[in-house]
Structures
1.
Amino acid sequence: MRIFLPMLACALALLGSLAEAQPPAPWIHDIVTTFETLGKAPPERITELDRAAEIALSAEPDEDLRHVLRSRGVHDGLLLPVLLVDPEEPTVRRRWQMLLQDQVASQSLTHFGVARQGERLAVVFVRRALELDPIIASESDGRHLAISGRLASGYGDPVIYVTRPDQRVRSFRPMLLGQQISFKLPVQEEAAAIIEVIAAGPRGAEVVALLTVNHQGVTRTITRPRELTEKAGWRGPSDELIALVNEDRVRIGMSRLKPDSTLNQTASQHAQAMAKQGVVAHVLPGGEPPAERLGAAGVRTRRFFENVALARTVEQAHAELWESPSHRMALTDELITHIGVGVARAIGADGPVLYIVEHVAHRP
């Protein structure tokens, strides 16, 4: 049972020009006020994410901001970049305040950064559950990376997932001393590996770090969404996601998963519950863990995984889930035979978003 959140790049208008040193104080005030009004601790502004916001401002209009930021070393599992244009305009300001209340404060974000360029304002939010140390390449042979960091309070039981050059995934447990984790990763020269750290937290199993590395450390290699080579035969977003999963499984030599109506129903129910609360998690406030929800639906299985995501499009969701080693491991498990997908559409302050749930299981 994994969680991964493909975060949204929110554009509320267009245009831009000259750089300014500091963003206007009202935007910082809005963030603090919204969190405090909802009884939540406001996120902390840090220089690292101010620089990330500057990078977001320099991205091309058609680029996916979360891909751009991950390629520049922003490793947090929950990453939410927001782009505002003409932020002083009253309508944009109101939509910004609605966005903070509807999509930002509900996600328990911990840190943010801000940058301004002409009429454009970029804000980058993250939930920082793992503070990574600088990655060290082995001086002896250059074929190992030493990776370490400290888990935030309330997180534990970490597992490392790595996508291998053959596109399959392996997992292992790091050394753990208190909240400090460490591990060594063998790497091949010029071959990139995607590393993901999963830890148990307040919302269940959660991605706390996602990064791509090679023998020199962090690399800027990224995966972009792609379209299906064959679009015939699917009737909506759920069918499209199943088709994307099966196309990638076939590409690496695996059989197709069979659609299952019961799994579609359990996935759809959880997707609708997430959309109603505006929260993406395996365990929602007042809700049940995935295994209990599945059991209540009468499903008995020896193998089951749940993937959850938030995205603008089906293609975006699949690209992020397939790139994530732990989610790919669920989708390529040798024992699973069936799949069900739920997609719930919600309208936020910045436009429509999709709450997505994938249920894969071994079924007779």
2.
Amino acid sequence: MSTLVVAEGVAKRYGTFSALSDVNFTITSGITGLLGANGTGKTTLLGMMLGLHQISGGSLMVLGVDPFTDGSKIRARMGYAPEHHTLPGDVRAADFVHHVAELHGLPPREARTRASDALWLVGLGEERFRPMGTMSTGQRQRVKLAQAIAHDPSLVLLDEPTDGLDPEQRDDMLHLIKTVSESFNISVILSSHLLDEVERICDAAVIIGDGRTLAAGTLDDLRGTGADVVVQVGSEAEAETLAQILSGRGVAHQIDGRTVIIRGDDESVFDTARDACASAAVSVHRLSRRRLSLEDVYLERAS
């Protein structure tokens, strides 16, 4: 698994305003989610990866080089689909994708062929000669994906690629991104504020908040197995009985129907859960470590 992007203490300031202050992560091949609330600096970070903005501090390497000093070299190997939908309305989709492919260094004839192939791939083969101003939001999002992959890049940056899409279109777009990545060996950095998008198709995630890295790693590593213990018993009445035992012992817990989550921060919580179940004489259907969701990780690190 090759290393694509390495950030060490990256900072970005605009005058006295600090957009990013301490960003650290390593991104490898596959699909990586760049997560964070709106306004946390995700788009700024993508711009620095493309070499469009110079970092104010730290170190940033993309595909083995400094993107700001080797911007043209980087952009020949990268694709980018911006968040905004401001595409030239009177230009045909095929002409637009062809033009962008030429900007990435492809000869005119090859660029036209690649543009057509890319538009067929994203499901716009029959629509490729339509002016983009006549297209729906979903179709324009597909055009943006097509122009990002037409020159066969090593890495594609997608900024909010499902913005403005209805649930069905969103599902289709996520499936298309995953198919493109896996079928053509193109790594993807997907910037989003939607946790479920990242959990559905990404192999890893970088979570940004307050100008710094809150968490970074593979989804399996991030979600991991928490110290909390989940106990599922035979009935809600048994769950209430178990909760009373835990309260009497001063053990933090949360009850949800027949399930009781027993809080803890070390290995002893498992013994605590076992002993409480025995004292409550409940029928235990499940007793296991709690597996964290990406939302759990985000909320925990953000707080």
3.
Amino acid sequence: MKQVYFIIAMLCGLALGGQAQGIRFAEGSWKELLETAKKEGKLIFVDCYTEWCQPCKQMEQQVFPSEKVGKFYNEHFINVKMDMEKGEGPVILNTYKINAFPTLLFVNGEGGEVYRIVGSKKEAELLQVGADALASKTVYPVNSQAQQQIALIGREIPDFCYRDSTGKEVKFSSFRGNYVYVDMWATWCRPCCEEIPYMGELEKKFHGKKICFVSLSCDKDLQAWKKKLRTDRMGGIQLNCGGDPAFMKFFGIQGIPHFILLDPEGKVVNPNMSRPSQEITVETLSRLKGI
């Protein structure tokens, strides 16, 4: 019996030892990670990846488990893996203008970018990348709009109430139980109007799913707005804020079109969502839990 316990203890020790090797990736919201980085006086190392990226998988399987790499990165950084197509990933992608994978990003506790490099790295190369990040004296601060939007993630929105084309008041709380994809637009905004056909395609593609497509116009000319709805045969839920700045102020919107994704509880998933015309939008919506 003692021999059996000894073998079990050995196996547990090996398992724990295996877990100790390689980079330890932290979990938590972006806000929590920033707070941890501030508290510990460390940079955050972000592995910006996607599920379909083969070089990303190669690093995950061959480089991140390295004991030497793990020792260096665990000592000097708060490490996090972030899928750029899920959760807070799209927000980070937009905030830091990530356009290739993997992107190895280093930011400080204020969210300012300190260093980045693109592409798969081998063990020695990744160690050098980390050393270069620590030695970097350059910081690119995140602009105030991006900081405001990042802070919104996971926050429940106020129960905004606007009128539809018939004059009926519609509260955002009426969408509870469904995801909500919001399009902030106006008839006089050409880029906004160019997205209308793509918005219609999204509505058709996700018909019957647990998601509402809300087009919120900031037109003050209600007749022009209603005419556009008829002319373009716009579907979905059409609302008009009548020039009320509350919605735009809450989300820190400085220009349109602007897209937002809310969860079924009315909490912000992505305050700066991709456009209907972008392929990543369909992919992101398709992967929403419970849709």
4.
Amino acid sequence: MPRTLSNLKRKDLFQTQGFIAHQWVDSTSGSTFEVRNPATLDLLATLPEMNAEDTNQAVQAAYEAFKTFKKTTARQRAQWLRRWYTLCLEHQDDLALILTLENGKPLAEARGEVLYASSFLDWFASEAERTYGEVVPPANPSQRIITIKEPLGVAACLAPWNFPLAMITRKVGAALAAGCTTVWKPAGETPLSALALAVLAQEAGLPAGSINVLTTLNKVNEVGSALCENRLVRKLSFTGSTRVGKLLAQKCSVNLKKLSLELGGNSPFIVFDDAKLETAVDAFLLAKFRNAGQTCITANRVFVQEGIYDRFAAALVERVKDLRVGNGVVEGVTIGPLTHERAVDKAVSHINGSFNSCRYIVEAANLCLWNRCHL
């Protein structure tokens, strides 16, 4: 039987509200949006469609919390992060199930992401206690130059839907370790994972206002603009498309907000004649099919040297035949659904346009068209 939300051991990890100032809240407008399972299109939850007003409330809560949070010791922040890390590991199965239901990736991959996401909390817990300053040799012998590192303030953390757990902890872990308070904006397609993380962060003892979570699907531009334009937000971190990254950079430039961007990938996969065939095929399967090809480092084109081409292509087709496409919560499935209908249309277009030019595409492609949501 496919696993569902009823299989959660901790039901409170499934939250359907935003999180501001240590309170679970609805949107000020009362508007909502739906989160659906991409494998079945079944409704998972209805969440608040938050807007600029909600965003400013979250920023204000984070700003007020920063006044005291910045004074906490590095050791105290490290202890909170380690406790959060431990809780994530304790509830790995529940976090993985929520992730698979809203994102679609197979449970095995989702469990791997929980471990990956948790590792950032462990890492930054250690880094918190290594926030060293420097002693700089002065030009004037009568002077002494010492630098110290201080937290910036409120940090906005914008995460994508393809790794909704790991991209939150990687950003938020760093911010909290440094002494910054945070406002999270998870992707509207996958907000449930971030909300589950917030439950565990709260349980770990992080102070009120140090984490705030905004949920939105249709007001993304409005919420993003509010985060860029609010002067209380001192740092913004975004992982996503190059197009959106450029827009955020433009908006943040108005008040010279510090900005970290991790944008769309462009990843060729190259196989030379002297490559070990099995190693090359294994590497390609990981590079191309992980998370149904929805990663920033997914191989988007393959260059194979002539001498190994036929052997590589034949071996790859045989391995692709072993892949099992389906609902990620079903045991044995290795490729889940694409998250967006537009991604399906694009993939179908690529396949249809390649039948006349690629010798091996027919056998692989026909295996995957079992459902409009899967490819």
